[in-house]
């Protein structure tokens, strides 16, 4: 484990590594086991493969060090097969019939499906947009406040500390979907949240080849309920995915630094273009989210969003790009972009583009984007 004062790069390359042992690898390979040798009375740590796996244990320690570097022992992490598995685990393990929950109205596009399921189980669902503190008027009698900041795809930001204070004063727990920021961009537990939840399919693993999610929390009882939910639903990551994720953490700092710098450079280049409206990047000094983002985030993420005049122009723009794949998801080392309206569900204009900035050379990427914009003029 790295010292609490270590830098992000040092922590990223060492996170979760076991004590060095002669003839053992630095990062042990994936452990493939449905069951473990277990003579006599059954007791942990490793009994059956749906309950625990040593490869998860190392990854969970690593993510815990990144989410709570000041107190990694005091926080626990549970990894899941996907971000949605992690989100569902918090919602369904912490809420029961008769409870009320406040969800973002402008968050991840699967949340409306979750909302239907929560309602079917007798949980009252209220919604509020991410920006503007509208959550405050929905908190009375609520059991859980769910925040997604920056929100996907609108990139609005809310003041986590302020909302946590208000929620805790009313007895409500707070969970933050930290997918877009990653723990190098923002540490929700340090801002007072009870749960930091993420889809690690995105920036945390960063190569577009693994689905994974995690939940980090300080309260052992609440985390035990989340772990129990994983066992009940079997929403477990494969050992290979867990190992790939751990291996990817070694480059997290390098990737995030490069991608955030590229995202800012792209946003600055787009800001001067007449066909671009509604440009959003929380790291851009003039962005409406910037003041709150600057106060609680350490890096501003790899996603830039903007609107082109119409659907046709947005489609041609995506078709013209040579270094940027037309694909969904975000946070990967290869730039991708998509016209978000093609999915339905998000309240965005037809020409709205969500751009996930990769680790290319910024000159090449920006030249490609400006060339594609010129081509659709
Ligand atoms: C992608 C995403 C999810 C869902 O993650 P999966 O790994 O696809 O299940 C949840 N929240 C946000 C903000 C996301 O971007």
Query: Mind telling me the C-alpha Rg?
Result: 21 Å
Query: What is the strand tally?
Result: 12
Number of domains: 2
Question: CATH superfamily of the largest domain, please?
Answer: Type I PLP-dependent aspartate aminotransferase-like (Major domain)
Largest sheet: 7 strands, mixed
Number of helices: 11
Q: Give the low-confidence spans.
A: none
Give the CATH class of the largest domain: Alpha Beta
CATH architecture of the largest domain: 3-Layer(aba) Sandwich
Plain-language structure description:
With 377 residues, the chain is of the alpha/beta class. It folds into two domains: 8-249, Type I PLP-dependent aspartate aminotransferase-like (Major domain) (Aspartate Aminotransferase, domain 2); 253-375, Aspartate Aminotransferase, domain 1 (Alpha-Beta Complex). 34% of the residues lie in helices and 15% in strands. It is built from eleven helices and twelve strands. It has helices at 8-14, 54-67, 83-94, 111-120, 160-169, 220-233, 239-249, 252-271, 290-296, 311-320, 362-375, and strands at 76-80, 100-104, 124-128, 144-148, 173-177, 195-199, 213-217, 277-280, 303-307, 325-326, 336-339, 352-356. The strands form two sheets. Strands 1-7-6-5-4-2-3 form a seven-stranded mixed sheet, sandwiched between helices. A five-stranded mixed sheet has the order 8-9-12-11-10, with helices on one face. β2 (100-104), α4 and β3 (124-128) form a beta-alpha-beta unit. The termini are far apart. The model has no long low-confidence stretch (mean pLDDT 97). It binds pyridoxal-5'-phosphate.
